[in-house]
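Researcher: I'm preparing a figure for a lab meeting and need a structural model of a single chain. I don't have an experimental structure, so a prediction will have to do for now. The sequence is pasted below. Please return the structure as tokens so I can convert it later.
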Amino acid sequence: MQRAAFLTALGAALLTPAAASAAAGARSRFDKLSVAGDARDVPLVDQRGRTFTLRGLHAPAAVIFVATRCGDVCPISEGMFVRVAERLAAQKSSAQLLAITVEPQYDTPFVMASAAQRFGVSADRWRWASGTSQNIQHVMTAFGVGDIMSDTHGEFVYLLDRHGRRQRSVLMSSNAERDVLAALGVTTRG
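Model: Understood. Here is the structure written out token by token.
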């Protein structure tokens, strides 16, 4: 009985410093994410060559991360955004759509403009954004998307308030279109 109590006490003593260290490390990582988590003032460049920031959108927005050469989830996300853009236009919503590249070295504003033209949606409604590798990486880190040097694709739609603050994420699924429209304040069909 004494031995069991001793082993329990010893285990707790040994685990406590490790637990404290792990908690400190988690706090440290959280603090870094909190600082990196605000990308509202990072300059991006749209398909028209105009510089803008997430804070400067001044409207609710839905954001996806794409690569123009992608044949995986990106075309699915883009197709869903076409339908969302049509609904936003039909209801005269001020909400914005934003596709941010995960390959800024390849997806220059010119390449993004070509991609945007394929969908025929107004650049005032749906911006296709690129920028410097450093700026794109900062935005990707803020959204928890990954690294521009990896084969990362966005599987989520990120919803922003009118001040460019992230409010919610929607998993790219069969309900994504409905959920994105509802989050942007657009009525959906029954």
